[in-house]
Amino acid sequence: MTKAAPAWLVPVAAICILQTTASFMSRFIPIIAPAVSDEFGWSGSSIGYLTASNSLGGLAMLVGGSTLLKQVGGVRTLQITLLLGAASMALFLQSALSIVLAACFLMGLSNGTANPAGSEVLQRFSPPGKRNLIFSIKQAGVPLGGVIAGLAIPVMVILVGWRITLLACVLLVVMPPMLTWRLSPHVDQTAGSPRWHVTMPTLQSLRTLKVPLQALTHNRGLLRISVVGSLFAVSQSCWFTFTVIYLIDGLHFSLGLAGVVFAIMQAGGVIGRVALGWLSDRLRSPNASLSTAAILSATTTLLLGLSSPAWPLWSIIFLAFVAGSSAASWNGVQIAEVARRSPPGMISETSAGSSILVNLVNMLAPTAFAAFVSAGGSYGYAFGLAGVCTLLVLVVLPRDGKAR
């Protein structure tokens, strides 16, 4: 007689798969954009605007989507935003950059849904003895989506062209929400049946949007650790957005090889998130682990700007892996520190406020990077400025001793 699967396994697996799918869709943009840009005559820096629009969609959902999540349910909302994003991907067939910018915005809605929906489901279903591990696995789904995108998309573009690749990616995004569609009523915690009538924002509800940011001012350490996340996001967003196009335009890599390097960077993020969390617990000092990540992140970003076609391939691969392990590994420790410093009963507000700051940087940093390059600045100087911003983490980190 076979042992039945634990009751928590299916909902936890479903939300992890859906979050990985949302990440895959956002990483799709900077990887396929070079091929699309070549055909439609867009500049290489336009990829920064596409990624910024994607981040804006996530920010809009993070700030204004709480009503939808409560009325319809977190899993159902994530499924709906993934399907909407998949439909929007077809707009990449249009040569008008403004239309593709709108598509990227709609694709970004699922990113703003994934974290609150995933956290709510995991909090209810994860066994207490395995909760930290399961939350870590869920967070690792973000770079895992990038690994899949980096390995699969360039190969498909080379073999069948970017249009067929686009269709295949649409199908990959559609399948998880469709396969998990019937699971939502059993997982979502809504009062009775989901209500599909969404209340329009009122003046009073709009005023509540400032609550998460105001919550960060409760104490100085909380505000500083939230700014730390924003500074880390500068280098992270530039690595995620411009690595592929820089390797192609600046170092003369093929799209396939650039995709492999991108995937290695994302794999470094999977390993780095777990390793940095372990190091922080081991040292009982989040400041020590975050300082290490900041130094490595800034150094690798500066070195990427200094790289040239004469550098051996192994050095670029090693640089990308270390960057993924540092520039994309800070999230878990920083989120935990925000929660630790939050006033009792305000963890959700402070977490949302910190996430809003990070998402603002995810939108503004690629935009500024693209504008700088478009104005005649080099990729090298742009990466250098991003690295200097992240190095400011060492100045902003709260100096109040070890973790409690």
From TrEMBL:
Designated name of the protein: MFS transporter
Domain of life: Bacteria
Keywords: Membrane, Transmembrane, Transmembrane helix
Native source species: Allopusillimonas soli
Coiled coil: none
Database matches in PROSITE patterns: MFS
Residues annotated as domain Major facilitator superfamily (MFS) profile: 1-404
InterPro entries with a match to the protein in the record: MFS, MFS-Transporter, MFS_dom, MFS_trans_sf
Membrane-traversing stretches: 47-69, 81-109, 151-174, 222-248, 254-276, 288-307, 313-333, 354-373, 379-397
Pfam families, A to Z: MFS_1 (PF07690)
GO MF terms held by the record: transmembrane transporter activity
